[in-house]
Design brief:
Layout: E1 2-3, E2 11-12, H1 15-31, H2 35-44, H3 51-58, H4 66-76, H5 80-84, E3 93-95, E4 101-103, H6 104-111, H7 124-128, H8 139-155, H9 158-165, H10 167-186, H11 192-229
Antiparallel strand pairs: 1-2, 3-4
Helix pairs in contact: 2-3, 10-11
Length: about 230
């Protein structure tokens, strides 16, 4: 799909633009809004898109700008992420561009600022573990860790990056990952043995998080004691 502008080269609506178009139509119907009513709500937040413009967006004939996207997300009371990705989860491949795709569960983690756009990094070991030294048994692990460090450096605000780099934060992320996998298995066709193995993985992840929280509390108590004694 393309949008032809007078005197300008046509702008192609790629896979992500198509998701946006489909999600605008889906969310508008979910909110029970006509195109005219949606226009009115957009004007209230300072972004004007006429009803005909909304129709063209939904028909994949009008490109949505960054400002349009944010205004639509505000009006729909949702995250911009929900407009940028299809409402899918799991191992289904989601095209991001004409030449690049990710599994849906990786794409959602990427959009949430949790991991790079790499299907290699969807396992709990990549979420939790960083290098203890310069020795790597697997070159792919080393490359993925470097990719993740570069991703965090340009994606997250400095303070949030400092929080995310804390082992407790990584352990909490791992718990979430393991619980999500467990829920998928519980509602799917996984065998009893596989489900029990995943339950054990969840408990192990929770134990690691609990131990790291205890360490945080001990470190804080030690710093307070040192500050009181100085």
């Amino acid at each position: 799909m393309t949008e032809q502008r007078k005197g300008r080269r046509a702008i192609e609506v790629g896979p992500t633009g198509e998701y946006v178009a489909e999600n605008v139509a889906r969310l508008r119907a979910l909110r029970g809004l006509t195109t005219r009513e949606l226009t009115g709500k957009l004007e209230e937040v300072g972004r004007s898109i006429p009803p005909s413009g909304i129709t063209r967006i939904e028909q994949k004939q009008r490109v949505v700008t960054a400002d349009d996207l944010v205004a639509l997300a505000v009006v729909f009371n949702t995250s911009p992420i929900s407009l940028l990705l299809p409402p899918q989860w799991g191992d289904t491949v989601v095209p991001l561009t004409r030449e690049r795709g990710l599994m849906a569960r990786t794409a959602w983690r990427w959009m949430r600022g949790l991991s790079p756009a790499s299907d290699y990094g969807v396992g709990p070991s990549e979420i939790v573990a960083g290098p203890d030294d310069d020795e790597w048994e697997d070159e792919l692990d080393r490359k993925y860790w470097q990719l993740r460090q570069e991703y965090d450096a340009v994606t997250l605000p400095p303070e949030l990056r400092r929080v995310r780099e804390n082992p407790a934060s990584r352990d909490a992320d791992a718990v979430t990952f393991e619980v999500e996998r467990l829920i998928r298995m519980a509602s799917g066709k996984a065998g009893d043995a596989a489900f029990e193995d995943q339950m054990a993985s969840v408990r192990n992840a929770m134990d690691r998080l609990s131990a790291e929280l205890e360490r945080l509390a001990e470190d804080r108590a030690r710093r307070r004691a040192q500050a009181g004694g100085s």
